[in-house]
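Two folds, back to back.
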Amino acid sequence: MHDYKRYCILYVDDEEMALKYFQKSFGNDFRILTASSAAEGMRLIQERGDEIGVLLTDQRMPGEKGLQLLERARQLRPRMVRMMITAYADFGVTVDAVNQGNIFRYIAKPIQIDDMRNTLMRALEYFLLQRERDELLLEKLSVVQNMIVTDRIISLGVLAAGLSQHLRNPLDAVRTFLHQTPAKLRYEELDTNRLRDPAFWRDFHAQVLEHAHHVSELVSHLDGITAGAVQAETPVDPSAIIQQVLAGFSTRMSERRITIEADLPAGLPLLHVAPAKFARLFELLLEDELVNLPQGSTIRFKAAPLSVAGSPVRIQFTLSDDGPGMPADSLRSVFDPFTTRDAAGQQFGLNLLGVFFLTHHYGGSVKATDNQGKGVIYSIEIPVTSPPAVDAVAGSEEFITKVLVNDALWEKLLAGN
């Protein structure tokens, strides 16, 4: 039921004949590594620890003893199964080996071939079971993490859709009214000189109009990334889409003297995406860079496939800049829609919120890291194999169902969070 040669058994003993005998006796059944001292054994653990499942060491050796090796191995590789072998019965050493080295077995020399073979099999089985348990726990944690991210996306999606629908119309009405106000004043029989401070009202009108336009522009960034936006998905060449996006930003980047260096290799795997949505992902990212980078900055853009067993499974898109960068605390909340980037608090994080939405829409991931104090690195990974297509009606019904039964979402919305 188990592959006993999947991981190695490391045997440490200062007797060369014992090492050769052990290799000859069990080399056909297991993968054996040998070391003639505790120092050499620790070196193998440090260099090839991922390959070693069982450590078997003699106690009495010149220099460092087997007990010290077991204790250090426990700290470095706690999942490694540890056993001690010795020709001298020492109750104190046995107790220390159990308490400090947390050993699996205590074996007396001379070894019995059949008993030792069974012991090694049990030790490897125990190690493999630990690995399987850890992998299952990791898989479950990954599922929980995805559920949390999905819940956050649904919550933000409902909020974004509400903002887009319920704020845009009132803002347009306010902007229209303010645009008409100067013309209406000219037709009214009103002497503006009689006002206490006409300049104040003109400045007030201009400021209100500017802020209304700014809020309307921020809300417009949410278009096309909410749950209700449905676009046909087709196989596309990601390099061609990104080149079009970069070409569209060339004039604005030149005005700010911002240089873009693109490394987009030919032959990238096709992605099954909606072209407009996929392009919008990088447009929002460049919009954020355009707003926050000082003049004379440089943006470096790269794309590369990530392969498993020689087959591409994801494409990694990396954008790095040499701007002022952000502190670690800010990087953790960079995808928060209400994060402010400038000193005046006017530039919110809605651009990066859109990047977050669109990346997770295609089953990918996005993260921001510090570029060694010389800017920010945005790393986006999109899977090459897209998830099965979902019927638009069924998908909408499922989305509405999730929203209606999501108590936590409604608590957040009602609380104003």
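---
second:
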Amino acid sequence: MKKKVLSALLCVSMAATMLVGCGGKTDDAAADAPAAEDTTDAAADTEEPAAEDTTDAADDSAAATDADLTTDKTFCLIVKSAGNPYNQKEADGFKEAIEAQGGTFVLQEPAAADAESQITCINNAISQGVDAIAIAANDADALQPALTEAKNAGIHVLALDSATNAASREVFCNQAGITQVGETLMEAVKDISGGEGKWAILSAASTATNQNAWIDSMKSVMEDSAYSGLELVGVYYGDDEYQKSVDQTDAILSENPDVKVICAPTTVGIMAAAKVVEDKGLAGQVKVTGLGLPSEMADYIGADDSHSCPYMFLWNPIDLGKLAGYTSIALVNGVITGAEGDSFTAPDGTAYEVTAASDGGTEIILGPPYGFNPDNIEEWKSVY
């Protein structure tokens, strides 16, 4: 995530109304998005231009890109569950991207973070006749029959944040490369622990594809001799529910009284773990790191023994939602098909390329994880 991109988010509207229980919302209001700076480079022209031609090639390219992503179609976002602040930020970004280009935004929120609830949302979207579905999958495989039905109905399907299996989607909008996340989190655990001792993982649902991929990557990184002094005592699952994540943190601490680090690659989990550790007065003994929202974690980040989280990481979920929105339009308009090597340029001038994913499908990667620490958390907590 690049700071220059995130800084622009200070202007992003956070007014997306969220509905509970898989209720659908259609929003026809156009977003008031600021004009994007034209940064498109002009392609070299191998033919000599006519003398009277003074057209700026970069301006022409930008105009063509904007036209490619202009739409009057309907786009549905299905998040993991209702009431999750991270999901709300994704929806804000998706909504802004769709409405700024003239499209209609529909939100479906599952009542629970499971496949069954998302299948209900998929069926609702099919019955509404939307043109594209973007989904953050709670289960990689269980959604395939419903998503296949959507594709058979002529609906474009893509995943964001947490991937469906490759057969269920045209492309996956990935917040960061799996290896990048695994390496980043393991280096944090090693640094915070001093390179030795017990540590635990507090995850979301046991079926969450992104969580499992990151955890597998972390375990692979641990095979390096540099991490030989670390002992992973277990993976605990809070299902992205705050109270269950609190209970699982209590379990980690009671079952492993000498644990040194809890790593939570989930925004709900890291906040729950950080609060439990501080409430128990253990911040001098146990530290928390992982993936968290700056606005939720600002009070827990600090370099002293009264704060439970020395530093953490994330990407911008608003940017991820925007990427999924632009990708949805590009699929519907035929700008891309989701095949490896496809590319498009977003209205803000950012170029994205479709690359091969580790599961045999394809993906578009937003960027590397970004670190939040005591020096910058005050700046970012007001952004998202």
